[in-house]
Amino acid sequence: MTETAWRRALRLALPFPLLALAGPAAAHAIGGKDAAFVAATNGPDPIPFLYLGAKHMVTGYDHLLFLLGVIFFLFRFRDIALYVTMFSLGHSITLLAGVLLKVRVEPQLVDAVIGLSVAWKAFDNLGGFKTLTGVQPDNRAVVFGFGLVHGFGLATKLQALRLNPNGLVVNLVSFNVGVEVGQVIALSAILLVMAFWRRTRWFGPTAAGANVLLMTAGFVLAGQQLAGYFLGGDG
After folding, report:
1. How confident is the model over 72-126, as pLDDT tens digits?
2. How many Å apart are CA 92 and CA 97, to the nearest integer?
3. Prediction pTM value
4. Cβ atoms within 10 A of the Cβ of 156, count?
5. Which residue, 204, 21, 218, 20, is CA-closest to 123?
6. So what's the pLDDT on residue 28?
7. What percentage of the chain's residues is helix, strand, coil (to nearest 5)?
8. Shortest CA distance to 27 belongs to which of 103, 106, 100?
9. Residues 28-37: contacts with CB under 8 Å, at least 24 apart
């Protein structure tokens, strides 16, 4: 992407983060009957927790947007598997450690960084870092690092439920396995759509615009969480 094209795309995207101030939105959380079930669980119950982990990932729009950015320009299965593995390793570490070691992190700030991770990857896909700094970040390290952040985001959702320590390890590992299953399901659907899109003549002309929208979504998600945190909302 040329510098002129990149600047044009950036100008299109910059106004949209202001929309975040209109009203902070709640990040996807475990609520309702699912929350009641988790809170009432006493002892190992792996199957329901596996289901909840898969459900949480499939409905986790922020995680899926980041993964979309990660695989957007990856065409070989080996590369896709490498980057998804780096992301999975990162979020598995902090999900398990965050809950088991009771590492407390402000949920809205974590979710804000998750939103920024979406914007970062889309900005990178637009060639932004290479254009502005002349340096291309090591995306393997970046994806792993943001995987750690996404894992803390998952951990904060579970910590809010005050899990019963009886059976916690089994249930938590089951939840993490479910997250991986949900990720495979969601990513398979994304890759099918991407494969079809890439075969059309519109992929080239629309790829930059899609990443502008992706970057905008990331800024809006981050802005919503920051507005909720600093203005005392419920986001």
Report:
1. 999 999 999 999 999 999 999 999 999 999 998 899 999 999 999 999 999 999 9
2. 8
3. 0.86
4. 23
5. 218
6. 58
7. 75, 0, 25
8. 106
9. 28/56, 28/59, 28/60, 28/61, 28/62, 28/157, 29/157, 29/160, 30/56, 30/157, 30/158, 30/160, 30/161, 35/161
pLDDT digits (tens, 9 = 90+) for 183-222: 999 999 999 999 999 999 999 999 999 999 999 999 999 9
Q: Dihedrals φ, ψ of 79, to 5°?
A: -70, -40
Residue 106 CA neighbour count, 13 Å, CB half: 11
Is the Cα torsion angle 124, 128, 130, 134 positive or negative in sign? negative
Interatomic CA distance for residues 68 and 217, integer angstroms: 12
- For residues 41-58, one letter each, b for 16 or more C-beta atoms within 10 angstroms of the residue's C-beta and e for the rest, the string is beeeebebbbbbbbbbbb
Cβ-count burial of 191 within 10 angstroms (0-12 exposed, 13-18 middle, 19+ buried)? Answer: middle
> Is residue 189 within 8 Å of 73, Cβ to Cβ?
no
Question: Is a pLDDT exceeding 50 seen at residue 145?
Answer: yes
Query: 221, 26 in Cβ contact below 8 A?
Result: no
Strands (E) in 20-158, as ranges, are: none
Residue 38 has a pLDDT of: 84
